[in-house]
Amino acid sequence: MRAVVVSLTKRAILPEKRKDTTVKRSLFLAATLFISATAFQLAAADPPEIPYTADPNFLKLPPDIHFGETSGVAVNSQKHIFVYNRGNSTGPAYAATASQILEFGPDGKYIREIGKNLYAWSYAHDVRVDPQDNIWAIDKGSDMVVKFTPQGRVSMIFGRKKEASDEAEPWTHVNPPRPPVDGQFRQPTDVAWDQQGNTFVSDGYVNSRVAVYDKNGDWKMSFGTPGSGPGQLNTPHGIASDNQGNIYVADRGNRRIQVFDHDGKVLREIKIAVTAPPGLKPWMGAVVPEDAPANTMKAGAPWTVCITPGPTQYLYTSDAYPGRIYKLTLDGKLLGMLGRVGRQPNQFGWIHQIACPSENELYVAEILNWRVNKLTLSPKK
User: Domain range holding 37?
Assistant: First the structure.
């Protein structure tokens, strides 16, 4: 920047090119505007770090209960915290049941287990709480979404797992993809709702679409197909809605968040143009080169999407590497970021779901660190 300023200044005062004061002032003003514009671009490309404190031990488990991979976390209107984790498993290394919902009070004290020995339990993915405080579990392994009442009883079921009497094997990715079936999921990931009570299921690893049901649980439609074009999806890994009923999908394999209206029309896409800090190592494995094909371990590939309540809403998302959380406006402006990959209390190991009950209070479920980390943000005013 200084070299540019010097160059412009010298050209303005060369003796063999006498210019009047108007020209000098014009050049000086142009240089000033250039510097200001460039500085603005640099600031926009390098969002501020948001200060925060982390409490990885906020949730208190009984001595005989342990978290496995904590894949989901949600908070209801009473500030109770629900954790969907891949615990409760003492079976074989492969094909063991790994799903369990645990409820905690606002003070972090353990309250109860929900759905113990449920038929749908297979492999936990996400958990959500709807506006009526019903609890929804999305099980990737059984291809089912289960709605519980606030009291913890099953009230509605979506999808169906493969029968144990047949060859109950996981869905495989084939090319060309299998045609989706109405009312059936293939490794679903998350759920959201609009103001009319319609349910939107991100369906998921195999179908790569969004399935839609009305408030009564009747099938309405689906939108999205496998691919990378506008409206297409590559592993929709999370889903959320805003106050206007727009649907935000973490299109992880395409490194973007796509925004749809409630009819499935594409409104916009959000891409987080960031790079990883030099020399930062992943939690495991090697760094994926930036010029490699699309990969879920690249900076800015969204694993999560959470939208805060209130008249002014913010969007939070995260990536696995460099393991940061990003704060955005709903139109996609990047406001700040925090954290990095690692094993320390203020670091993260594959954030799989975020609960954001307010702008500056977050709960993050970490797959690799087997914990839910409570974060209190202190953004600079």
Answer: 2-42
